[in-house]
Structure formats: C-alpha cells, structure tokens
C-alpha cells in the first residue's frame, strides 16, 4: 500500500501543478479528493489488513490527503492572484479617481426639519399618533358633523372595520389631550391621506404639520404672533403674512393664512399656506367626555390650533411647480438639492 499511496500522491501533485484554470483544478480535486478517488478506494480495503498494519496504512492515507489538500489550496490561491493581477494589468494608477456622487436630504425632509426647529424654539414639543384612526379621533372629537363632506367615502379612505386613514394630523392633538393635562403645547408632523385626484398640486398622501397650544388665557394675538414669527423665520424677515376669516368645525374664530412671496421673474403674490383658529369649546367638551373628567374645562381654558402642508412649503421654498416631483425619486430632480 505504501507504494500505491506514494504513486497516487505524486500523480495528484503533478496534476494540480499542471492545472491552469480554476475549472481544471476542480476536475483534479474531484478526481483525487472526491468520493470515488483512488485514496478512498484504498481506504475501503483497510478492512482486510491486520490490526498491526491498519494504523500504518491510516497514517499514510492521511498524510497523502493532507498533501493533496494543501497543494489544491495553494494552487487555487495562485490562480486567483494571477486573475486579479490580469484584471488590473491595464490600470493607470496615475489617473485621478472618479468623483463619487454625494447624497443629500430630500427637500421635504429639509423643510420639515426646519419647521420643527423653528417651532421647538417657541416651546412646542413633538407628538405622534397612529395613521390608522377612529372616526372619533379624526372627526367626532373635532366637532365635525356627520354630514360633513370630509366624512364621505369619496373623500376619505375607510377600512371594512370602520377605521380610516387619518385625513389630518389633528387626531394627534385629540390623543395628546386625552393623555395629558393642561398646559399642552405640541406640534404633530406626519402623513395624511385623502381621496384627491393626483395632479400638479394634489396627492392622495401628503405631509402635514399641525400645532396645538392650550392653557389659561391663550389669545388670538398669541396665535397671530406665533405664525407670523414662524413664516418670517421660514421665508425671510420681510415676508408679509395675512389672516383671512374662514370656517373650520374645530376652531372658532377660524382663519386661512397667506404669505406674500416673490418668485424670481414674477410679480409678488399672496399664497395660501395654512389654516388656524382658536380651539372650539366643543372640542374640549368631547375630550373631557373621552377622559371622564373636566381637565379641559372650556370655561377655564382657551387654546389655538394650526395646520400646514409641508409639501406646499417645500414647493414655495424651492420654486417647485409640480408636487409630483417630490415623490417620483427622479435623481435628475433630487440632485439639485445635493
């Protein structure tokens, strides 16, 4: 057996050295290390050896297997090194490196972070709530009558369970008042959903930021000063802000807010940016009923609320004409903000 093992080892090492590709080397491995290799055949015949001969034969076979395995690994590494060297043979190491493209925050993220930063300086805390809501939190608690158009299936996404995708982040204001006692001063950025037809100014999913401040002796002048400061911090110190009377079921009195901006090459014009107002006492009553106490006594407390579309702020900030550009992930568009 000593002669046979030595001969097999010699043949295997010679074949390994002669293999000039990884495929050829694999064929050699299968031939000399596979299940049907000659060494395995010799090992199968060890049952016929005497007890004294078996340890010697086993050692010979193990030594041969280790030599073949080591030679295979060494040759495989040698072939890989040669392939790596060939792949960079024509590389000019003196050429300047290619510039790597740099990423940047999405314009919506920039605007949202900026808005949060401004309002946090005014003492507002961040609040969150679920995007799948109940009718109570989205409509009933906000004094929205049963026949209001927003509650129609054509305007709101309903589930079979009766729950819905929130149409505004005002529901976060209700949930916050259910959990906290006055004073409450929060902002709630997040997604909202409505059955709008998608066009240059509308999406069915959009981003809102709403605010709520409830305490003793909160006045309309506080609301006006807060939002004037916010829009001037966002768009510039000379930004003009105006409040137009409006109607919202959850605030009274209510206003829409316009800012006067000048886009390059165009005349200055008023642009609607938000809605706001003093919290309707009916909202406090609904929250008290849900809480089971009188923590938000409308005879003792007042408050204001406001809501704005972050997508619209981004369009104004960057002069974007089509809101769909914000969701298309077109790198040609987004690279402008890098």
Your description of this structure?
This protein is an alpha+beta fold. It has 2 domains: 2-80; 107-337, BirA Bifunctional Protein, domain 2 (2-Layer Sandwich), CATH 3.30.930.10. The chain is 41% helix and 20% strand. It has 11 helices and 9 strands. It has helices spanning 2-18, 22-33, 38-44, 53-87, 107-121, 135-138, 170-179, 220-235, 281-291, 310-318, 331-334, and strands spanning 125-126, 132-133, 164-165, 184-193, 205-215, 240-248, 251-261, 269-279, 302-309. The strands form 2 sheets. The protein has a 7-stranded mixed β-sheet with strand order 1-4-5-9-8-7-6, with helices on both faces. A two-stranded antiparallel ribbon has the order 2-3. β7 (251-261) and β8 (269-279) form a beta hairpin. 27% of the residues are buried. The mean pLDDT is 89.
CATH superfamily of the largest domain: Bira Bifunctional Protein, Domain 2
Oligomer: single chain
Task: Output the structural class.
Answer: alpha+beta
Q: Percentage of helical residues?
A: 40-55%
Q: Mean pLDDT, as a whole number?
A: 89
CATH class (first level) name of the largest domain: Alpha Beta
Tally of structural domains: 2
Order of helices and strands: HHHHHEEHEHEEHEEEHEHH
Q: Tell me about the biggest sheet?
A: 7 strands, mixed
Query: What is the alpha-carbon Rg in Å?
Result: 37 Å
What shape does the CA trace take?
elongated
Strand content: 15-25%
Number of helices: 11
The CATH architecture term of the largest domain is 2-Layer Sandwich
Number of strands: 9
For the termini, the CA-CA separation is: 73 Å
User: What is the topology, as strand order, of the major beta sheet?
Assistant: 1-4-5-9-8-7-6
């Amino acid at each position: 057996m000593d002669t046979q093992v030595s001969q097999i080892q010699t043949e295997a090492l010679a074949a390994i050295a002669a293999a000039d590709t990884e495929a050829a080397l694999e064929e050699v491995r299968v031939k000399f290390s596979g299940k049907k290799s000659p060494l395995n055949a010799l090992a199968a015949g060890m049952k016929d050896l005497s007890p004294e001969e078996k340890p010697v034969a086993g050692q010979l076979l193990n030594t041969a297997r280790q030599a073949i395995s080591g030679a295979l690994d060494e040759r495989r590494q040698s072939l890989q090194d040669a392939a790596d060297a060939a792949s960079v043979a024509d590389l000019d190491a003196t050429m300047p490196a290619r510039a790597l493209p740099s990423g940047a925050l999405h314009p919506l993220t920039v605007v949202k972070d900026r808005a949060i930063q401004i309002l946090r300086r005014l003492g507002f805390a961040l609040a969150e709530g679920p995007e799948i809501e109940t009718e109570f939190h989205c409509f009933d608690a906000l004094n929205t009558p049963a026949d209001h158009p927003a509650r129609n299936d054509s305007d709101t996404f309903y589930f079979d369970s009766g729950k819905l995708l929130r149409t505004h982040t005002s529901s976060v204001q209700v949930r916050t008042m259910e959990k906290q006692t006055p004073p409450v001063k929060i902002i709630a950025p997040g997604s909202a959903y409505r059955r709008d037809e998608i066009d240059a100014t509308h999406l069915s999913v959009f981003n809102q930021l709403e605010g709520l401040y409830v305490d003793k002796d909160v006045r309309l002048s506080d609301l006006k000063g807060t939002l004037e400061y916010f829009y001037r911090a966002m768009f510039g110190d000379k930004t003009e802000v105006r409040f137009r009377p409006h109607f919202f079921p959850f605030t009274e009195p209510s206003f829409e807010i316009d800012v006067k901006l000048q886009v390059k090459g165009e005349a200055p014009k008023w642009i609607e940016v938000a809605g706001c107002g003093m919290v309707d006492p009916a909202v406090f009553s609904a929250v008290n009923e849900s809480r089971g106490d009188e923590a938000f006594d409308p005879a003792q407390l007042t408050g204001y609320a406001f809501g704005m579309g972050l997508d619209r702020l981004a369009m104004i900030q960057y002069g974007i004409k089509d809101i769909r550009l914000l969701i298309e992930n077109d790198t040609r568009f987004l690279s402008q903000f890098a």
